[in-house]
Each structure stands twice: as structure tokens, then as C-alpha cells.
Amino acid sequence: MTKTLDLLKSLIEFDSSTKDAANKTLQFCKAWLEQEGLEPVRLTNDGFDSLICNVGAGEKRLILNGHVDVVSGNPDQFEPKVEGNKIYGRGSADMKAGVSAMMSALSELQHKDLGNTSVQLQLVTDEEIGGKHGANFLTEQGYLGDFVICGEPTQLGIGYQAKGILQIDIHLKGKSAHGSRPWEGDNAIEKALETYQKILELPFAKESTALFDGPSINLAKIRGGTVYNKVPDEAVISYDIRFLPGQNEEEILKQIQTITDGEISVHLSGASVINETDNPLIQKLVKEISEETQQPAETIKLFGQHGFADTRYFARFGTPAVEFGPSGAAWHGDNEYAEINSIETYKNILVKFAESYSK
């Protein structure tokens, strides 16, 4: 068993689906790094811990970003199981495989000549609930580099763009009436459903890019009505909109305001991630992936993510950030797993990329 796999098994055993447990997981990571001769630093924001660990002293900084928190799971999912080339367990793919490889890579890199490069490992405890206290806090405090690799599971491909996020609630007013005479009222739930159809016809909803057929518009929640025999005079309809790179929240909100008299409140918003494939560091990463996996460079998958990761917090400051991680499947599902051989391959790519980073 490799050092990386042994570390991953230990990480899976932590049910890090709560703040306190995720903090304990991070404390384990800190102790592990210290045993490897490194000097990690723990930071705390609103009770959520983050970890920073540096190697090298160069001016060009590479950030390795990971999260140790997971979504909830059944008790047996925190008992790692190895079957063939797969290791099963909650968080095995998302994203403790990436974290264990990054930690192992940092341990190796402390003994390498990195030239004008410094590498900073960042581990956080709240990515699965939005990242407000982790990556958001770190980037606001200036923990930014020249390039960021977020170790989400990408099957050793590179997610170089990602949709932004806009979650909103629309509060709609109607007029109550007796249920037997609905024409005397103004049904707020019907207004909510009409609003949904109108949103799908707005200009932003019809746009597309080379990577995306369109934005994702999810009718997430609807609330209204109290009894059967009354026309509802109030309704709240909620949307999870993942907008395209190049679109922005302000314009989307303006368009929505043209088709409803409801009160719009923003629950969550976040920038899209916009990179181009001709970025020299992305091309360098492709080269290292190609050489380590012995695949032609043109077959390395470059793609756009429909969801979002902590890359978005770096992107808002203009720092190029990509998702790049090991292979796996069924994350957030009952049979989540990571592919064992890809984890060591991923670690090797990180080491070689860091070594060549400033050359």
C-alpha cells in the first residue's frame, strides 16, 4: 500500500460531514504534515478551520486547493473498502483522494529544487456548504497565487471553465378568495408557475457557448397556500440558476425583473470561472498529464463544469483556477469510489508540474 492510499483510508474514516468533525479531520491533516517535516498553519474563521502549508521560496506561487468536508453518509460509508482498483467510501472521490495526493505531493516537493516556484497547499472545511468560511475567507485575506489547481474528481481531465451560480427567491402576491370562486381572486401559485415559464424564454436562458448548450435553470422550491378552499394570496418560488461564463448576475436579475412584479431576493451568488485553453500553464499541465499517462496531448479532456467549486473564489480576483483531480464516480452517492491507480498518477503529475512550473 502506498503512502497516499494509506492516508486516503485514514481520511475516509473521518465522518467530516459536520463542522466539528471536518475540523478534527483537518487537525489530523496538520499532524500528518508535521510528521512529514512540514510546517502547516491552522487558521479559523467563524469556527471553521483552514490549513495553509508552504514549500519552496520562489516568487511564482502554485496553489493546491482541497476540501476535507463531505456530504452526509451512512455509517458503513466511513469504513473504506478496497476492491480491485477501487477504494469505496464517502469522500473517496469528492475529494479526499485529491487531498491525500496533494498532501503526499507536498511531502515530496519539500525535497525538490523548485527554482523560482513556491507551492501552497490550502485545505478547507466548508466547500460542500458553499465555501464562505474557507476559500472565500482565504482569498479575501490575500492567499492568492498565480495558478490554482482544485483537486475535485475530473478523471484526470481539466475543468477549465465553470458556470456561475445565482440562487434566488421570488415572493409573489395575489388576492385571496373562496376556493369555489377562484375567478374572484388572484392565485399567487399560478403566478409563480407563469413566472417560471417566462424565465425560460428570457434572452439569457437562450444563450450558449462552445462548451455549454445553455445555462442551467432549476425550479428548486415552491411554497404557497394554506388550505384547500382558499385561493392562495402569497407564494414563494425559488431557483438555482447556473449561468454561463460571460453572463453576469446583474443582467440576469434585470431580465427577470421585467417579467414579474414579485420581490426578488438573492440567496447565493458566485462568479463563473473563465479560462482559455491557450493559457501557458494549462498547456504545461496538459503536457505533464500526457507524459505521465502516456496519452497523446490532444486526447486529454478539457471541459466545462456545470457545477461550481472553490475555483470561483480565486476567479473573482483574476487568478486562473482549474479543477483537476483523480478518477472516481458516484460522489455524493451510496457507492462513491476513487480509482486507486489514478490517485498515484495524479500525485506524480502534481509533483512534475510543480517542478517545471517556473521553467
UniProtKB/TrEMBL annotation:
Domain Peptidase M20 dimerisation positions: 162-260
Gene Ontology molecular function, alphabetical: acetylornithine deacetylase activity; metal ion binding
Keyword 4Fe-4S: no
Superkingdom to which the source organism belongs: Bacteria
UniProt cross-references to InterPro entries, sorted A to Z: Bact_exopeptidase_dim_dom, Peptidase_M20, Peptidase_M20_dimer, Peptidase_M20A
Gene Ontology terms: biological process: L-arginine biosynthetic process
Database matches in Pfam families: M20_dimer (PF07687), Peptidase_M20 (PF01546)
Keywords: Hydrolase, Metal-binding
Keyword Signal: no
Official protein name in the record: Peptidase M20
Protein species of origin: Staphylococcus piscifermentans
Classification of source organism: Bacteria, Bacillati, Bacillota, Bacilli, Bacillales
